[in-house]
Amino acid sequence: MNQPSPNFRNAFACVTTLFFAWGFITSTVDPLIAAVKSIFDLSYTGAFLSQFAFFMSYGVISLPAAGVVGRLGVSSAISVALGTMIVGCLLFPVAVLVNTFGVVLVALFVLGSGITLLQVAANPLAAALGPHERSHFRLTFSQAFNSLGTVLGPFIVGRLILEGGVFTTTAGAAATAASRAESLHKIEVAFVAIAVVIFLLAAFLWKERKLISNSVPAEEYKTGSIGEAFRSGWAMFGALAIFLYVGAEVSIGSIMINFLVQPDILGVSHQSANSMLSMYWGGAMVGRFIGSWVLRYVAAGRLLATAAFIAAALCLTVSQSTAAFAAGAAISIGLFNSIMFPTIFSLTLEHSSAPTNATSGLLCMAIIGGALLPVLFANVADHAGISTAYFVPMLAYAGIAVFGTMTIRAAISSRGKSAVRATH
């Protein structure tokens, strides 16, 4: 690749805007859960079907998306992804019109499908735009802007959909038809506005499509059999780690508002709890900016294992405590989540024997953990309480710590083999 470095920098800046966009949209599902739970009078398990529908798209769409990226090229695949996201947003007015939770789930699935295709294209692209030895840094840095989106998403959208409407109803009283209609209208306004912003972003990136295409190393998106990812042990191990990470992160973020409003935790309003949810995602943002610097000096596997161990310890703390101490521990988990996704992703791409687009597709498929683990989490919360449910993410983080430790051993083994070859 003979492109000068400024092209890499400009293309990387364009791609980073995509990370921000899907972070913003993904995090809006958290306050949406609190809203639909009250609007449609759902249990935790019922409300968490929102996350199930959104993240199930990763399980259905990821592997076909890898084929789409390989066939259309990265720029065209990104355009298709953004168009699909717009369609998903515009299905929310339909859900409001028919006043049906099922249509909300369909809209979330379509929206998630677009984001899935976007991630399959953009994650390896961010890692590829520059020197190989700094791929962990670039992906973590891009994910920091993804986290900025997750901070602003609940802060902006949550403040709109969690005020007025059903949230003016006296505690314990049933919501009126008028209050439900008001809250549904606010959801409609929020997602139509998001559709407009995505359209503007799509127009900008279409204008810059040649810059992105010309900056992509051809070998990064070579066509290969998607089945090759299933034959790579490291690709499968990385997929399991992604499954556990996303499931844990989504479970904690999705329950945060309802967790904090409990009388034995903080007993605050839904609006105040929504602001604290932004602190959870804000910790991930700060951690990613710090982590992108730390990764220059600390091995990615070592940092990952340490962060996962601390996150598991914080989950145990939440399960065994109450009041501000429990709330602080729960919010703090966001800081240690920060570097997990990008380091798992880039470490897996580094070790996998499968083509990049196939490995990326499998890793994005593993994000289905955000559909399955939160439902298990919600089931435990319905039957044993939210605090007890934190044992679910605790075990997930323990599994991630094992993955990080194994990558350290693999790196040591690889260096040893290289040293042996060098002596012969």
Describe the structure in your own words:
- This protein has one domain (5-422): MFS general substrate transporter like domains (Growth Hormone, Chain: A).
- Helices cover 81% and strands 0% of the residues.
- The chain has helices at 5-27, 29-39, 44-47, 49-72, 74-90, 92-98, 101-128, 135-161, 177-207, 209-215, 227-230, 233-260, 270-294, 300-319, 323-337, 340-351, 356-365, 369-384, 386-389, 391-422.
- The longest helix is centred in the C-terminal third of the chain and has 32 residues, at 391-422.
- The two termini are 32 Å apart.
- Residues 1-6 have low confidence and may be disordered.
Number of strands: 0
Write down the secondary-structure element order: HHHHHHHHHHHHHHHHHHHH
Identify the CATH homologous superfamily. Answer: MFS general substrate transporter like domains
How many domain units? Answer: 1
Do you know the CATH topology?
Answer: Growth Hormone, Chain: A
Shape annotation: globular
Radius of gyration: 21 Å
Strand content: under 5%
Tell me about the biggest sheet?
Answer: none
| CATH architecture call | Up-down Bundle
Reading off the top of the CATH hierarchy, the class is best stated as Mainly Alpha
Low-confidence stretches: 1-6
Helix fraction by DSSP (H/I, runs of at least 4): over 70%
Tell me briefly what this model is.
The protein has 424 residues and is mainly alpha-helical. The protein has helices spanning 5-27, 29-39, 44-47, 49-72, 74-90, 92-98, 101-128, 135-161, 177-207, 209-215, 227-230, 233-260, 270-294, 300-319, 323-337, 340-351, 356-365, 369-384, 386-389, 391-422.
